[in-house]
């Protein structure tokens, strides 16, 4: 025997896909056991039960591969199969968009909805914690949402349903297993008849299997079902208050194709029930309420009541009997259910005969099963008498497919219970239909035969009773399934209540108790109101839910998408991947993200932040020395990035500061400057950002340097930026040799004053307009500014020439500007600063208003948290090096120039300047893909900066923190690279991103700022 | 990596197996054990098939995702083009399948094309006004004479006959008005009038085969999904602009003509309802 156990971090696959991969591995010749699953508590326990020793530290976000086989070769072959299956998943990017568009599949529901305006429904089956963001995207896009996922916090449910009410859409779920819309089954649903004649029943269901059972019985009785609108098991709780049930009831009341409505639920909370009854009272369509619980009629009785109201004959509910019906044992009953409501109903029915039944979903608190110690999730039931287990309950589905899809857990329990000498009867439900096991009897029938035979070998009689929930049209072939089960010795009933009664009687127990009173089925007869009385809140959007959806957006389990495709529905898949946070503060991040997503201020606040960014109209109004413009005093220096001490400063920043001291004549040479900076006396360092300024690379500004002064036409706000020195050995890259200082002096003596005269004479120069043109001319405004520079030169040349300055100076200025392709970068940057500042300080907004780096740390600011910096270690850019330099010479990322990406250009519009991706060996499609990806994390699009190759789509603008965290997509930044040694200058140019730490820190800061939120 | 798009066409003669949804209007054809049909038209978004039955000719339309949801339609999921079909191609229909030389279609779902009975028609004036404002495919005089005879409770046979085949296209404007009229009568519970006005299949020779089949279906209470959505909105009191706009976008003037007929039918049905 050979074993293989491995754990992989940060790989996510849905549980159904993993089940298929596990099966592929297990079917490899020579393999005796194989499990490929996320390392949840339940799955590690199952692996442990198989005898594998689980590595320490494996958690629910890790993929666990456990294989046991005859020999090394067999295990190796199985591993190869696993690898192939896993890789196939990663490579099969979902189709979407034209092949030439370079656009990958949508990563969020927002993008998918924008690309597919006709998809009226979004079906979510992502892990519970990821539901909020995706569902909010759907609601904001005006789409109905079915949330198949469980383990969704109830607070999230309230947030979603409140938002849905406002948007006029329906949220079905969370934990909504079943819906049928216009004949299309979503999730687990049966194939129901479509007829044009006779009454049609619409169903509002707070119970998935309850709805399936109800509709299957109606179908058997020849009644067509118009719609099944699931609302989720908690909808009628006190906190949720029946929000979705009420919306669904109103919708069905508005549907001319629905003649009768059935509401099926476990008994609702009285307050929710009162709200529902108030709505039902003013509805036109008759309503039957089926509340599954003690003292309430069972589903079968409810269906019979509906049939009576519709004047339809009562059918004989189907039952299939085994050959030997005389065999009876005596003992305990064990129920192993996949449907919670069916388990519940069975307990209600059987408790009349059997008394108290213990359960993981007990009818009364006293009947619960004891907590199993040591995280043991598989219940040991010996000695508990009659027990019913709901295997579809949340505790059994963390990291595992639902038992309707994966029978493994139930088959294991079935064998275990059959071996229990106390047990005389096993009661199971078996649900057919879309998305369910394609041939459940194939595994269940042999298990039943084996169980009966094992009991017989121990001289016991074991009866097996099955409630078979399905229709004649279901693709599993109900009659064939029943025949196989009966052949194995089981009793099979179409009615769960009948099955439960049969099972109770087969235990040999005879009820001594009188039959308890059962309430009559609660109905509301038809009301005939004059047409104008109907006060409807139904919107066109809501009504779209009543027609068969030709297109559905699916996120999560492939199986559910496949079930829709099999029904001739076009499926749009979202390439959802959970983000794994590996930052130091990772533990609190998911909760903080939920808090911020649930903050209702966020949507409007972000919209406002984006609007303010887009409204900025930046104009160059003056060129002035920093001492005058920023009120910088001698000895005061601004630098790029978040605040930093000289002791922590990186090489290029140190070099630039040394050069600035020499330039300001505060030091004669490097040694003196370094000594003064280290001593700190008379020296004051501060971020440019704190003085409304920005500076590229080291970003050092000293009082004698001249600055561009920009003004926002809309608000009057101002921003400043130094003049660009050119490339190579320059101060901003940390060089401070004599030629650097000489150039700075010329810039202060000639260039600055000349530009000032020219700009003042020309009047305000519209920089926003030039940026709009440059991004259509191959510039992305960060690493490529050639067109912008030339357009700027065109603006100032006439007034420069007529300035009266010496011709030599004019020629030198013109030559300097024209000879430096990056001259315009220093006009892009203060425009970005104006845009970022315009969006700052809006409570609740999660839009990024500044991104910058000081060569050591990357820092970002968020609108909703004002001036607070969220920092992480600056990363090393990836790119091309100037001759003579290599990766070892580079400093980490540095400069305020990432304000270009903050404003939506630079790396964000890589598509417009494909040459930039060649820094990293990329191609034109890569550039298109980068920009397509950036739209996933931005709040808005800026029509002023249109990207021609994307059909002039506006630049992706206003980076939003929750979208960065949801997708794991980081903003793409194009940048220059400085040498790590002070004095080196530029060593190359390339691409970089902020560290994720900035965004995880930001979400914690934002969450702390949410009123009543977490701290 | 994903296969390049062109591999889909690698074998131009391969028969593709696809799944589709069908209108209940053609359930009798699909539920039949097997019949032969022939392709009679290939407009851009559909393939039109004629089937000879004991009850007369019947039509079936294979639809792309963009085509109108006609009540004799078979919509193939996610197909944006039905290229490769030609008039005269044989088609086999029945047993829940439709097989052409290019496609082997399994019908996995039915949608109800039956016109529901609606009890609230408060938005009818808006419908009528919007339909009036849209370009129409029939001369106003022909419409006026129909309206006049209906208003006076007269026998509209002659006025209806005058509309049959009137106008241009696959479904001439006059036919669309008639189909809308019959649908409006069904929606207001006067299917009896619809069947009476339509009479026997007396127009097969006077208009296109497709149009005659759509009138036949309207007479027995089947309509396109665009009309059904509008009726649902009318019944529920929801805003009508979106469903009306969707209806008007059908064909050249077909949507407007259907809407015109529908408004007349709803009014006539409602009035005769009260008179009854």
Task: Provide an overview of this structure.
The complex is a heterodimer of chains A (1015) and B (276). Chain A has 1015 residues and is of the alpha/beta class. Chain A has 31 helices and 38 strands. In chain A, strands 13-19-18-17-14-16-15 form a 7-stranded mixed beta sheet, sandwiched between helices. Chain A has a 5-stranded parallel beta sheet with strand order 6-5-4-21-22, sandwiched between helices. Chain B is of the alpha+beta class and 276 residues long. Chain B has an 8-stranded mixed β-barrel. Chain B is globular and about 55 Å long. The N and C termini of chain B lie far apart (68 Å). Classes of the chains: A alpha/beta (1015), B alpha+beta (276). The A-B interface holds A 91-93, 95, 99, 182-184, 194-197, 254-257, 531-532, 534, 536, 538-540, 542-544, 546-548, 550-551, 565-571 and B 1-2, 4-5, 19-21, 24, 65, 75-78, 107-114, 116-122, 221-222, 225, 228-229, 231-233, 235-239, 241-243.
The count of DSSP E runs of length 2 or more, i.e. the number of strands of chain A, is 38
Provide the structure class of chain A.
alpha/beta
Distance between the termini of chain B: 68 Å
Low-confidence stretches of chain B: 1-10
Q: Describe the main β-sheet of chain A briefly.
A: 7 strands, mixed
Number of strands of chain B: 8
Query: Globular, elongated, flat, extended or rod-shaped: what is the shape of chain B?
Result: globular
Rounded radius of gyration of chain A (Å): 34 Å
Instruction: Give start-end ranges of low-pLDDT stretches of chain A.
Output: 89-103, 528-537
Largest beta sheet of chain A: what is the strand line-up? 13-19-18-17-14-16-15
| N/C terminus separation of chain A | 52 Å
Q: Name the chain pair whose interface involves the most residues.
A: A-B, 38 and 44 residues
Question: What structural class do you assign from the helix and strand content of chain B?
Answer: alpha+beta
The amount of beta strand of chain A, in percent, is 15-25%
Write down the oligomeric state: heterodimer
Mean pLDDT of chain B: 87
- Overall mean pLDDT of chain A stands at 90
Largest sheet of chain B: 8 strands, mixed, barrel
List the secondary-structure elements of chain B in sequence, H or E: EHEEEEEEEHHHHHHHHH
């Amino acid at each position: 025997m050979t074993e293989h156990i491995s754990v992989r971090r940060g790989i996510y696959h849905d549980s159904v896909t993993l089940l298929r991969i596990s099966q592929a591995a297990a079917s490899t010749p020579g393999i005796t056991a194989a499990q490929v699953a996320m390392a949840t508590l339940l799955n590690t326990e199952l692996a442990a039960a198989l005898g594998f020793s689980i590595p320490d530290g494996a958690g629910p976000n890790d993929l666990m591969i456990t294989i046991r086989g005859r020999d090394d070769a067999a295990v190796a072959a199985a591993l190869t199969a696993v690898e192939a299956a896993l890789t196939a998943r990663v490579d099969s990017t979902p189709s979407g968009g034209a092949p030439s568009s370079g656009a990958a599949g949508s990563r969020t529901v927002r993008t998918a909805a924008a690309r597919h305006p006709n998809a009226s429904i979004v079906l979510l089956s992502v892990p519970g914690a990821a539901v909020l963001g995706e569902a909010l995207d759907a609601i904001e896009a005006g789409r109905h949402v079915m949330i198949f996922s469980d383990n969704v916090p109830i607070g999230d449910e309230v947030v979603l349903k409140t938002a849905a009410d406002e948007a006029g859409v329906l949220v079905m779920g969370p934990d909504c297993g079943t819906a049928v819309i216009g004949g299309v089954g979503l999730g687990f649903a049966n194939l129901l008849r479509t007829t044009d004649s006779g009454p049609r029943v619409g169903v509002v269901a707070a119970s998935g299997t309850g709805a399936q059972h109800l509709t299957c019985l109606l179908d058997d009785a020849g009644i067509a079902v118009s719609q099944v609108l699931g609302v989720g098991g908690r909808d009628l709780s006190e906190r949720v208050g029946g929000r979705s049930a009420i919306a669904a009831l109103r919708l069905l009341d508005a549907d001319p194709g629905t003649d009768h409505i059935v509401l099926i639920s476990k008994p609702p909370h009285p307050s929710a029930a009162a709200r529902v009854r108030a709505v039902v009272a003013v509805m036109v369509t008759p309503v039957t309420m089926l509340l599954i619980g003690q003292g309430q009629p069972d589903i079968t009785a409810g269906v019979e009541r509906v049939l009576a109201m519709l004047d339809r004959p009562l059918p004989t509910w189907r039952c299939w009997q085994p050959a030997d019906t005389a065999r009876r044992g005596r003992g305990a009953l064990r129920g192993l259910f996949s449907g919670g409501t069916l388990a519940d109903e069975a307990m209600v029915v059987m408790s009349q005969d059997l008394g108290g039944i213990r359960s993981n979903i007990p009818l009364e608190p006293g009947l619960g099963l004891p907590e199993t110690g040591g995280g043991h999730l598989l219940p040991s039931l010996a000695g508990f008498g009659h027990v019913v287990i709901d295997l579809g309950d949340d505790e059994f589905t963390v990291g595992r497919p639902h038992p309707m899809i994966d029978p493994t857990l139930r088959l294991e329990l079935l064998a275990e219970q059959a071996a229990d000498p106390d047990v005389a009867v096993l009661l199971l439900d078996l649900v057919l239909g879309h998305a369910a096991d394609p041939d459940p009897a194939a595994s269940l029938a042999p298990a039943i035969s084996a169980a009966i035979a094992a009991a017989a070998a121990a001289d016991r009689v074991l009866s097996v009773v099955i409630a078979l929930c399905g229709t004649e049209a279901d693709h599993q072939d109900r009659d064939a399934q029943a025949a196989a089960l009966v052949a194995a010795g089981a009793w099979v009933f179409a009615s769960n209540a009948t099955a439960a009664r049969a099972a109770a009687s087969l235990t040999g127990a005879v009820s001594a108790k009188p039959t308890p009173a059962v309430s009559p089925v609660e109905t509301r007869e038809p009301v005939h109101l004059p047409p104008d009385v109907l006060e409807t809140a139904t919107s066109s959007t809501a009504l779209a839910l009543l027609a068969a959806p030709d297109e559905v957006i699916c996120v999560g389990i492939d199986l559910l998408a496949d079930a829709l495709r099999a029904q001739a529905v076009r499926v749009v898949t979202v390439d959802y991947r959970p983000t794994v946070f590996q930052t130091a503060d990772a533990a609190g991040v998911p909760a903080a993200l939920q808090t911020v997503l649930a903050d209702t201020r966020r949507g409007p606040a972000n919209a406002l932040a984006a609007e303010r960014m887009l409204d900025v109209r930046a104009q160059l109004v003056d060129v002035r020395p920093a001492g005058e413009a920023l009120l910088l005093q001698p000895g005061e220096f601004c630098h790029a990035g978040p605040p930093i001490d000289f002791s922590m400063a990186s090489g290029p920043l140190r070099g630039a500061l040394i050069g600035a001291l020499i330039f300001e004549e505060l030091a004669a040479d490097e040694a003196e400057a370094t000594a003064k900076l280290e001593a700190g006396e008379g020296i004051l360092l501060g971020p440019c950002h704190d003085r409304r300024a920005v500076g590229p690379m080291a970003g050092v500004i000293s009082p004698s340097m001249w600055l561009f002064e920009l003004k926002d036409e809309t608000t009057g706000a101002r921003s400043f930026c130094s003049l660009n020195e050119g490339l190579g050995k320059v101060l901003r890259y940390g060089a401070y040799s004599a030629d650097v200082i000489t150039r700075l002096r010329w810039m202060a003596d000639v260039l600055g004053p000349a530009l000032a005269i020219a700009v003042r004479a020309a009047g305000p120069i519209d920089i926003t307009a030039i940026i709009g043109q440059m991004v259509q001319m191959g510039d992305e405004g960060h690493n490529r500014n050639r067109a912008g520079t030339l357009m700027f030169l065109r603006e100032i040349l006439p007034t420069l020439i007529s300035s009266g300055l010496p011709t030599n100076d004019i020629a030198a200025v013109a030559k300097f500007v024209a000879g430096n392709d990056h001259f315009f970068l220093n006009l892009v940057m203060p425009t970005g600063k104006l845009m970022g500042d315009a969006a700052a300080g809006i409570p609740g907004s999660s839009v990024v208003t500044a991104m910058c780096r000081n060569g050591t740390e990357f820092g970002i600011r968020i609108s909703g948290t004002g001036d607070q910096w969220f920092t992480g270690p600056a990363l090393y850019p990836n790119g091309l090096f100037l001759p003579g330099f290599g990766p070892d010479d580079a400093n980490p990322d540095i400069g305020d120039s990432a304000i270009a990406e903050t404003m939506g250009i630079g790396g964000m519009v890589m598509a417009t300047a494909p040459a930039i991706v060649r820094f990293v060996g990329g191609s034109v499609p890569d550039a298109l893909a980068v920009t397509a990806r950036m739209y996933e994390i931005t709040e808005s699009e800026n029509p002023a900066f249109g990207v021609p190759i994307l059909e002039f789509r506006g630049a992706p603008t206003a980076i939003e923190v929750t979208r960065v965290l949801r997708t794991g997509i980081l903003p793409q930044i194009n940048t220059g690279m400085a040498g790590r040694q002070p004095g080196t200058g530029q060593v190359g140019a390339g691409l970089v991103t902020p560290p994720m730490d900035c965004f995880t820190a930001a979400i914690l800061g934002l969450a702390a700022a949410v009123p009543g939120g977490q701290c | 990596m994903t296969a390049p798009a062109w591999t889909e066409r690698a074998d131009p003669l391969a028969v593709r197996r696809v799944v589709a949804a069908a209108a209940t209007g053609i359930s009798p054809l699909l539920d039949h054990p097997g019949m032969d049909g022939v392709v009679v038209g290939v407009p851009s978004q559909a393939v039109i098939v004629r089937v000879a039955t004991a009850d007369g000719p019947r039509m079936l339309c294979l639809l792309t995702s963009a085509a109108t949801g006609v009540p004799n339609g078979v919509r193939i999921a996610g197909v944006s083009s039905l290229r490769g079909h030609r008039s005269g191609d044989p088609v086999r229909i029945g047993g829940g399948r439709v097989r052409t030389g290019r496609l082997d279609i399994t019908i996995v779902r039915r949608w109800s094309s039956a016109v529901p009975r609606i009890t609230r028609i408060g938005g009818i004036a808006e419908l009528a006004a919007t339909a009036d404002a849209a370009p129409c495919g029939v001369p106003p005089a022909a419409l006026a004479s129909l309206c006049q005879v209906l208003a006076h409770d007269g026998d509209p046979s002659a006025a209806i006959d005058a509309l049959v085949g009137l106008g241009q296209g696959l479904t001439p404007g006059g036919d669309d008005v008639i189909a809308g009229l019959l649908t409006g009568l069904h929606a207001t519970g006067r299917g009896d009038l619809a069947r009476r006005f339509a009479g026997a299949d007396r127009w097969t020779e006077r208009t296109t085969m497709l149009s005659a089949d759509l009138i036949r279906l309207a007479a027995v209470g089947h309509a396109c999904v665009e009309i059904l959505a509008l009726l649902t909105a009318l019944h529920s009191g929801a805003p009508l602009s979106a469903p009306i706009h969707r209806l008007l976008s059908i064909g050249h003037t077909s949507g407007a003509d259907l809407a015109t007929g529908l408004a007349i039918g709803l009014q006539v049905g409602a009035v005769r309802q009260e008179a009854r």
